[in-house]
Amino acid sequence: MKGTHMTGGYRRAGLQRGGIELRQLLRNPKELSGHLTNVVVALVVAAYMSDDVPGTQTPMAHLVLAGFAAYLLFQVGLVNLPQMLVTEREEGALLRLRATPGGIPAYLIAKCLLVVGTAVGTLALLLLSAAVLVDGPLPHGPGGWLTLLWVTTLGLLAVVPLGAAIGAVLPNPREALALIMLPTMGLLVTSGAVFPITALPVPVQQVASVFPLKWMAQGLRSALFPDSAKAAEAAGSWELPMVALVLTAWAVLGFLLAVPLLRRAARRESGSRLSARHRKAEQSGALPARG
């Protein structure tokens, strides 16, 4: 009974903290502008696309929009979340969590809620604004909406815990962005998100198929495109069972890594480490010197 009570306690604490952070995000124009910029970039790129996907009657603009939709989910989990975790670790959040019973699981629940809320809101804004402004695709019928729901859910489950695990081991906020952005941009180019994957060499396709972005984009295309568009896929089909299998495998791997790595990062934190980092940041000019 005591264990159940404690579990329920950190779940409630995590949900409450996540709700507070979501409200803070909505009241922060600077933070919101970053997500809105991604949507605007996707709409502008799609507006300049006029050709069809080779071998189909699907507009290239639709391929770009579906790819950007997948990348926005991917980015929130694997770019934004690690940066948040590293920044808060630098500010002493993990040190405080170490002294709080159930602090790490509650913290992870809060971050998951924040990321899911941000990702779903951005995805909805992209799809709805694209449909209105550039004749973008929307799911056809209940089956399409159901596919959109489960692919989005599994996609976030695949990248959010993995992002938390990455955030636990990255060195500092100044290096985190550089270490994350290059691989994620490489995956954007090689995963068939912004142009047909069949245009890429087979070895590149095989490497891309290991990572979740390729399957997230493919799953979203299956929800948004007519069945005739699957002729442009590498396998000539949507491969939805494989989409579910790969994303589930990444979700399991992420969860197995995230909590132990965050606990390890919290155990390694100390007041002296935190002070040393602050002094180093002040000396480099990243933080203002304290009087």
Report the β-strand fraction as a percent range.
Answer: under 5%
SSE pattern? HHHHHHHHHHH
Percentage of residues assigned to helices: over 70%
For the termini, the CA-CA separation is 50 Å
Largest sheet features: none
The average pLDDT is 81
Helix-strand category: mainly alpha
Low-confidence parts, pLDDT < 50 over ≥5 residues? 1-6, 286-291
Give the C-alpha Rg. Answer: 20 Å
Tertiary shape: globular
The number of helical runs is: 11
Give the strand tally.
Answer: 0
Overall description:
The protein is mostly helical and 291 residues long. The protein is built from 11 helices and no strands. The N and C termini lie far apart (50 Å). Mean pLDDT is 81; it is low at 1-6 and 286-291.
Topology:
Blueprint: H1 2-26, H2 29-47, H3 60-90, H4 93-98, H5 103-133, H6 141-169, H7 173-190, H8 202-208, H9 212-224, H10 240-268, H11 271-284
